[in-house]
Amino acid sequence: MSRPPPSRRSLCSYLFFLLLVTADPALSQQAAGSAPSSAQQSQPSPAAASDRNVSLRKLPANLLADQKDIWLLPAQVAKGKYWLPSLAIVGVSSAFVASDAHTAPYFRTTTSFSGFNRAFSGKNTGAFIAAVPASIYIVGLVRRNSYAQQTALLTAEAFADGFALDLAFKGITGRKQPLQYVGNGPYTDSFFNGTHNPFHSGGFYSVHSMSAMAVATVIAHRYRSRRWVPFVAYGLAGAISFSRITGNSHFSSDVFFGGAMGFVIARYAVLPAR
Description:
mainly alpha; 11 helices; about 0% strand
């Protein structure tokens, strides 16, 4: 069997590293000690006590409830709720939008990230983002670890919520990709001048960044008893997000806003118990 190319080998090693989370049944327990029995593994851990209960049967209803909360958020902000984080995300995103025309030319013309872009191509990172929760679910299924299975389902729920919102944003904003420009641009006419097809690559916001951050947030939260897990999860999400800029598929504002949406949706819409 031939070896995989280096660009994919590194991502495969990261996937194996994350699978160590679910390979150890003790990770479904917060307290250190002897390995739990099969009966104990099927019980919710203290870390999940405040998390949403999810299953394949409950997933559709959960998604509908999430979408209701997401689309009604502006009304909640108008009533004085969540205004500080909302203002922070909008403010930072606006700053990135203002800087896009000045930062995009560098990434459009440089060859410094060619190796990085090959390793973190859109296909590689997309497959990796999907493989992580799928692998966690399979490992949980084989080991009869309901905690791992629910973790994978929560990542799928967070992705679906963020993807639905992404379709709306892309359809409305119709933003062009940096790679559709030549050299120094200008890049000031990117909004509303591209395709309004929400399934088109690029646009506002980055679905890769949203997906990577949503998956990372769920895993980092669910397995936070292992201190290295959040660093690995968020580190990989950051690398994947950055690759969308260096590969000229997105402006920096697309990536920041997408990552922010992934985190907010996973942490505050998907994970809390109802």
